[in-house]
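Peptidase S1 domain-containing protein structure dump, as promised
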Amino acid sequence: MQKSMSEILLLKLKNTIHFLFLLCLVIGKTNSGNVKPQIVNGEDAHPGEFPWMVSFQRYNERLDRYGPTCGGAIVDHRHIITATHCYNPEAKYRVLVGAHNISKSDSDEPSRQCYEPCRFHIHPNWNKESLTNDILMVTLKHPIDFNDKVQPIRLAPSDSDPVGQTCVVSGWGWLGGTIETSILQKCNLKVISLEECSPWGEGDPLTINEFSVCTLPEQTEKGTAAGDSGSPLICYDKEGPYATGVVSWGPEPPGTGDVYAGVKAHLDFILCNKPQG
Ligand SMILES: *[C@@H]1O[C@H](CO)[C@@H](O)[C@H](O)[C@H]1NC(C)=O
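structure tokens r here:
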């Protein structure tokens, strides 16, 4: 019990304590109405709206099944990206794509496909204290079958600069405890400059570096929560959507800011671990 709890706490590290507090409030209240312990103040995504979305699932020996651990994004037929802090080399994982209501069983959601990972590429400068370079590339044993609900996401172009833009993050968020969470959540967030968010990492082992991307909610408190780690932050340019960041951590309380491993800053890592063609 203690162990699985501390493992869960690793997800979206800084927000978690506060999140558990919120969760307690939710559990403590019957009639809690619209309170959703997923992405803070997000809304339901439409089925197939984020076809690149991955549920990175860890095998639970006691329950003899896989359970959602983190989000991720499809890069191409054989590769997905997620956050390194989601990964424990001793555990077994699967990659689920095409999911919408994560509480359903695989057979009840026909758009789902499951893939077996065969290699985990950890960033050479990954630091688990500061959570810098929190990006993991996963190679799959078999190629993903693309369709209208399952598609790759373009990586951030090397000349992209989304600072000031409104982008969107999606995730299944917290899925522990007794709360019924299910539908993929989304929320819009504004990308801010590293100067603006660097104080979030000060005096703390958690660090903003030049490979980070940060967002702020536009008005009300919004953002990612425990379990959204690894999910992609998506921005838009003339050619459409592209992945700009991988959810890593955020300041407290939840919904007051988010920090991502930047995709553009990690293009060499992503592309060089990914054979071309
Ligand atoms: C999601 O799936 C679960 C399990 O089948 C079901 O109980 C729940 O009502 C579904 N949620 C929605 C919003 O459809």
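Residues 101, 103-104, 182-183 surround 2-acetamido-2-deoxy-beta-D-glucopyranose (CB under 6 Å).
lmk if u need the other ones
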